[in-house]
Design a protein that fits this description.
Distance between the termini: 69 Å
Helix content: 25-40%
Radius of gyration: 23 Å
Strand content: 15-25%
Strand order of the largest sheet: 7-6-5-8-4-3-9
Structural class: alpha+beta
C-alpha cells in the first residue's frame, strides 16, 4: 500500500465504484466542451466526440488517433428521420442487437466537418446537409451503445463521431490506462452503461432547511447529491410524512421532474407549473403532509436545451413523442431509481403516489417501493397545452379524463 508523503501513513485505497462515477462525470464534461475522449472496452478502444460540439481541432485529434476512418453514430430514430437513401450493412447477415440500437454512417471526406456533422445530428440546425456526397451505412462498432449513452449523459444530442484507436487491442499496461494520449480522458464503456443506476443508488442527503412556502408554511427542502458530485435532486417535504411512514402509513408522494419553462416562467405549453403548485397545496391539507421529489430530469430526462429543440420541432408539426425521436431520444429517458433512493433515505418505503402516469407506478414498484394507491392529479387544459395533454393520454397512456371536443 502506498504511503501518504505528507503524513507518513498508508494512503487509503480509492473506492472503485466512486472512481468509476467520477471518471464518467469527467468524460461528460469533456464531451460538452467538444473534447474527444477515449472509450475502453475489454480488449479494444475507440476515440469519440459529440457531433454537436466537436470542432475542427477535435476532429483532427480523432483522425490522428484513428486506425480506420471514423463513423458517425446515430440513434435509429434520428437516422430514420434523416430520410437518407442508406444501404443496409454490407453482407447478407442478420442485423446485430447493437445495430438495432445504433446506426453507423461512413461519411465522405467533405462531410467530416463541424457544420455537416451538426446538420446530421440536429434537425433544428440551419446548416447545409448536403456538403458533398452521401453517407453510407456501415457496421456499428461494438462500443456504439456506450458511446451514445455517454453523449446522452452529457445531455447532448445522441450523435457521435467515433473511430477505433490505431494502437490496436488494449492490454494491461499503459494503453489500459489511456496513456497513449495522457491529455485525453479515458473511461470504461461498462462504467458508462452502469452509470445511471450507480449514480442513483449513491445519492445521499447533504443539506436540509426549513423553507416556508406560500401554499405550505410547514415545508422543508432536503438536498441529495450522488457520489460523482453531479447535480443535486431535491425533496420538498411538507409536514411530517416520515412520522406517518414510521407508524406504518403510506404518505402522499409526487415525482416531479424539474421544468424551468413551466415551474419558473409559467409556460402555457405544459401543465408542470400548476401540477407543482397544486401538489404542494394538496399535501399541505393532507394529514401527515407529503413529499414532492423535485428531480433534475428536465424534459423527461433529455435536458433543457434538447427540450427547447423539441419545442421547435413541435411548432413545425410534430407531437412530443415524435419530436424527441427526431432528435434521437426516447419518449421518456427518466430513471426512477433516483426517486426510490431518495425515498429510502427519507425512511419512506410505502407511498400513495400522486400521478396520472402509470409508468411512474410501475417504475417505483420495480425499484422496491410499495405503492399503496394512485391519487389522480389532473390540470385542466389552458387553450395552449390542449394538444400536449392529448398526446400524454394517447401516446404516453396517462390516465386523463377525455376533454370536450376530443
Amino acid at each position: 500500500m502506498a504511503e501518504d508523503p505528507r503524513l507518513g501513513a498508508p494512503a487509503p485505497q480509492p473506492d472503485p465504484a466512486r472512481a468509476a462515477l467520477r471518471a464518467v462525470h469527467r468524460a461528460v464534461a469533456e464531451l460538452r466542451r467538444g473534447t474527444p475522449v477515449l472509450l475502453r472496452g475489454e480488449d479494444h478502444g475507440v476515440v469519440m466526440a459529440p457531433a454537436e460540439t466537436v470542432g475542427a481541432a477535435g476532429l483532427g485529434e480523432i483522425l490522428a488517433l484513428a486506425k480506420a476512418p471514423p463513423v458517425l453514430l446515430l440513434a435509429p430514430s434520428r437516422a430514420g428521420a434523416l430520410a437518407l437513401p442508406l444501404a443496409p450493412p454490407p453482407g447478407l447477415r442478420p442485423v446485430t442487437a447493437v445495430e438495432e440500437a445504433a446506426v453507423a454512417l461512413r461519411l465522405p471526406p467533405a462531410m467530416l466537418e463541424p457544420a455537416a456533422l451538426r446538420s446530421l445530428a440536429d434537425p433544428t440546425f440551419e446548416g447545409l446537409l448536403d456538403a458533398g456526397g452521401r453517407p453510407e451505412r456501415a457496421p456499428a462498432p461494438p462500443l456504439a451503445l456506450a458511446a451514445l449513452a455517454l453523449a446522452k449523459l452529457a445531455r447532448l444530442l445522441p450523435a457521435v463521431v467515433l473511430a477505433p484507436l490505431r494502437e490496436g487491442p488494449m492490454r494491461e499496461g499503459p494503453m489500459r490506462e489511456g496513456l497513449a494520449r495522457p491529455d485525453l480522458l479515458s473511461v470504461v464503456a461498462a462504467d458508462v452503461l452502469a452509470y445511471p443506476a450507480s449514480a442513483a443508488s449513491s445519492l445521499r442527503r447533504v443539506a436540509e432547511a426549513a423553507v416556508p412556502l406560500e401554499d405550505a408554511a410547514d415545508a422543508r427542502i432536503v438536498a441529495f447529491r450522488a457520489a460523482d458530485g453531479g447535480i443535486e435532486h431535491l425533496a420538498i417535504v411538507i409536514g411530517r410524512p416520515e412520522d406517518m411512514a414510521e407508524a406504518g402509513g403510506a404518505p402522499l408522494v409526487r415525482l416531479h421532474s424539474e421544468c424551468f419553462t413551466g415551474d419558473l416562467l409559467g409556460s402555457l405549453r405544459c401543465d408542470c407549473g400548476p401540477q407543482l403548485r397544486g401538489a404542494i397545496a394538496r399535501m399541505a391539507q393532507e394529514k401527515g403532509g407529503g413529499v414532492l421529489l423535485y428531480l433534475a430530469q428536465e424534459g423527461r430526462g433529455i435536458g433543457l436545451v434538447n427540450k427547447l429543440r423539441a419545442y421547435a420541432l413541435q411548432d413545425a408539426g410534430l407531437d412530443t413523442v415524435d419530436a424527441n425521436k427526431a432528435l434521437g431520444w426516447g419518449a421518456d429517458e427518466r430513471n426512477f431509481l433516483v426517486a426510490a433512493t431518495m425515498l429510502e433515505q427519507l425512511g419512506i418505503a410505502r407511498v400513495r403516489l400522486m400521478t396520472n402516469n402509470p409508468d411512474k407506478l410501475v417504475g417505483l414498484v420495480a425499484c422496491g417501493v410499495a405503492v399503496e394507491g394512485r391519487v389522480p392529479h389532473e390540470i385542466a387544459p389552458n387553450g395552449v397545452n390542449d394538444g400536449y395533454l392529448a398526446t400524454k393520454a394517447a401516446r404516453f397512456g396517462h390516465l386523463l379524463a377525455p376533454q370536450e371536443g376530443n
